[in-house]
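subagent[fold] <- orchestrator: predict structure for attached chain, return tokens only, no commentary.
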Amino acid sequence: MDSTGTGTDWRVVDGVATAWFDAPSLVGGAALAGRIVELSTEAVVDVRATGVRVRLDPDEHAEAVSAAARELGLVANPAVLQHLSIVFDSADPSAIRPFWQRALDYAPGEDGGLADPLRRDPAIRLRSSTEPRPLRNRIHLDVVRPAGAVEQAGLGEAYGSYGVCHADPDGNEVDLVPGDALGEGSGTADWQAVFSAMACYRTTSPTQQRDLATAAAALADDAGFPLLIDLRPGLVILDSGKDQWVDDAHGLELDFTDLAATLQTAARELGATADPGLPRFAQLFLDAADVDAVRAFWVAALGYSPDRRDWNTDIIDPRRLNPVLVFQEIDTSETERRRQRNRLHVELAVPSDLAQTRLATTLAAGGRLLDESEGRWQVADPEGNELVIVSGA
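subagent[fold] -> orchestrator:
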């Protein structure tokens, strides 16, 4: 047992016992996921082509999960664990909370912030601040939800060049984008295109959940596609990943809509029911005068990878567990806006035994240490956007 009390496979990340087990395939990962949901219906499990992330709160089943992984030949790799959150500074956090709750369909969190009830997208934390910052942030959120959900959010009339931008009472912006059906036919009726292609299936038992994850993994492996399979209490989420249903993004010899139709058939045959209002995609958008320098910093600081398309500025968590970051060039004449601190910053929770290594990597990538306290390091990127590295909690 290590200092977290949950064994050497596990670390506390963002306050939750978390483990990553490398796996050779989706089928290998789904085998572990099936064992986990039989142990605990409350476990949060993310199956990827390269492994499985497990979050347990409480952690009473940690040793049993580790034993199941060992029986399946899967090895823990705690060095890859991390979790991103978004933090807003506000003179009146209670004034901006309802806006973001509607925009994201989040629930109130224990710390006064907001949390995704499905524990997929990043938590929103709200901090009090009296520092005046009247100009636009250089960071904003993009959120894509089904068209009906966007309308129900009731954020008022949108503005901006694409007609999708909204601002909270402090001026923090979100592009709330309506998604669309993945295809025109009934064969993919369960799927929404929300930058990702996504289908969310309600399940009625751990057995049904296990069987759907297993079937989806086998179909995706057969197609050679790195499908994202997320298991939540009573739910299985099938997700292509951002843009990965588009040919030039995945670079594979397949039409994703064909795979989506096959997955839909399998889910329906197992008795799972699609919930068309649940798909949601969220990403962070950063404006930068020197996109290359800022992008390189965040690649190193987060351990991300550039998008395979050389014209695209996206950077991506290689395990596709944390939000995509996108970069666009800002007008260099906006000197005041560039000097002003954002009201929004990124918080990165890492295991306590890896925090110093991550800090060193971040500083070597051009970061500037602004402040430090016990277990927290505040770092600015080359243009002043802030990342707070948090140890363990």
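orchestrator: received. Logging for downstream: The CA atoms of residues 21 and 75 lie 5 Å apart. Residues 1-5 have pLDDT under 50 and may be disordered.
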